[in-house]
TrEMBL record:
Gene3D superfamilies: MFS general substrate transporter like domains
Biological processes per GO annotation: peptide transport
First-listed, main subcellular location of the protein, grouped into a coarse class: membrane
Molecular function terms, GO-annotated: symporter activity
Record family assignment: Belongs to the major facilitator superfamily. Proton-dependent oligopeptide transporter (POT/PTR) (TC 2.A.17) family.
Topology in membrane: Multi-pass membrane protein
Gene Ontology CC: one annotated term: membrane
Compartment list: Membrane
Name under which the protein is recorded: Solute carrier family 15 member 5
Membrane-traversing stretches: 7-28, 34-53, 156-177, 198-216, 282-302, 322-340
Record's keyword annotation contains Membrane: yes
Residue ranges the record marks as coiled coil: none
């Protein structure tokens, strides 16, 4: 499963590399409208291809849980907690247990236990919000830095989006290496590095990337200004070469190569098969929420600073303070994740808990054990009585 996820993200980023190298250059140097026409035609061809093979892609999902059932367990638990004094059920270990049928709820024990496993992943998803806000600095803060730097490489004008290739290189290079290391560890019967350790390292790389971005901004402002033509307009930019910003792109790309596949792996292995799709949907939702969080942080900083952090002339702004602030909160986020990472060390905990946490199953096992015990005692007593008679 880990190898498959790594290959999937490798192919996705390989496609992104082609897009940034090709379409970005066409849009900036050849024709601006053509840069929009190519993605539009690509999407249309993709939709036509999916429509042609839709019968082969359609399958019957596994029964047992759905998004509506999951939301229903939450709502029913809240309702039962609010109306607890009207029911005869006693105290429960978790507030979600109120939704069980034996506690007056409307859902089976299996459904509730599956949702409890999903809730256990919410801290993991919540701590990805700030990390994803750091990732959004590539098309926002890092983009502004690159746009206000010298884009000329000898006589060639680099597209601004070409700097994104630097952030994609770590995954293109590390994915085959990580797959090789994982295969070697499994063949030698050794455990590879756990996903939570990989995520912690990725979060640390993201915090370090934003810190380096702040230091690079201080260094960039020390260079004299020069005129540079961008999209038909002449603007004042720093004479520092944009390639000097490569370390922060590399660190953020390394973080993405480590975090995203590991989060998907944890979500897949720690959830039962019936709700794996829902768990991955919540993970994707946390990524989207992180993008919104990054946009909100930038907007709040812009409003509170009166536009001082993002002025028209970046040389007069204080973008480095924003990067230092983001590096500080991301460091705290990394320490919090490291503190709770023990919950996700064993990838078999979630499924074993679902299988063995059912009270009904535990009672049946106890009854089975008791029957075996009494059967053994009865046989022993019969044998002893016969020996005595003889």
């Amino acid at each position: 499963m880990k190898v498959t996820l790594t290959r999937f993200y490798w192919l996705v980023n390989l496609n992104s590399t082609v897009v940034f190298l090709g379409i970005a250059y066409i849009q900036q140097s050849v024709a601006n409208n053509l840069g929009f026409l190519i993605p539009f035609m690509s999407v249309m061809l993709m939709l036509i291809a999916i429509h042609m093979v839709r019968n082969k892609l359609t399958f019957r999902p596994k029964k047992g849980s759905s998004l509506l059932t999951t939301l229903g367990v939450f709502l029913n638990s809240v309702k039962m907690c609010c109306l607890h004094y009207r029911h005869l059920s006693g105290d429960v270990a978790s507030w979600l247990d109120r939704a069980k049928e034996n506690n007056g709820g409307h859902y089976s024990e299996t459904h509730v236990e599956n949702v409890k496993v999903l809730v256990g992943l919410f801290p993991l998803y919540g701590l990805q919000l700030l990390y994803r806000a750091c990732i959004t600095q590539i098309p926002s803060g890092y983009y502004i830095q690159t746009m206000n730097s010298n884009l000329h490489l000898n006589s060639f004008l680099l597209p601004i989006a070409a700097m994104n290739i630097i952030s994609i290189l770590p995954l293109l290079l590390l994915a085959p290496l990580m797959e090789c290391v994982t295969t070697c560890c499994l063949s030698m019967e050794k455990s590879p590095l756990s996903p939570v350790r990989v995520i912690t390292l990725g979060h640390a790389c993201a915090a370090l990337s934003v810190l380096v971005a702040g230091l690079s901004e201080v260094h960039r402002k020390g260079f004299p200004l020069k005129e540079q033509a961008l999209s038909g307009k002449v603007v004042q930019v720093s004479s520092m070469a944009c390639l000097q910003l490569a370390p922060q792109y590399l660190l953020l790309g390394l973080a993405e190569a480590l975090v995203t596949p590991a989060c998907s792996l944890i979500s897949f292995h720690l959830t039962p098969s019936h709700i794996r799709g829902i768990a991955l949907h919540f993970l994707t939702l946390s990524y989207g929420g992180g993008c919104f969080l990054g946009a909100i942080i930038i907007q709040l900083v812009y409003l509170f600073s009166g536009g001082n952090f993002y002025p028209n002339t970046l040389h007069e702004g204080n973008l480095e303070r924003f990067f230092f602030f983001l590096a500080t909160v991301m460091t705290i986020n990394t320490l919090v994740f490291w503190r709770i990472s023990y919950r996700y060390l064993d990838l078999s905990v979630g499924q074993s808990r679902v299988v063995g946490s059912s009270h009904l199953a535990e009672k049946l096992l106890q009854y089975k054990t008791c029957l075996r015990f009494y059967d053994t005692m009865e046989s022993s007593y019969t044998t002893t009585s016969l020996d005595t008679i003889l």
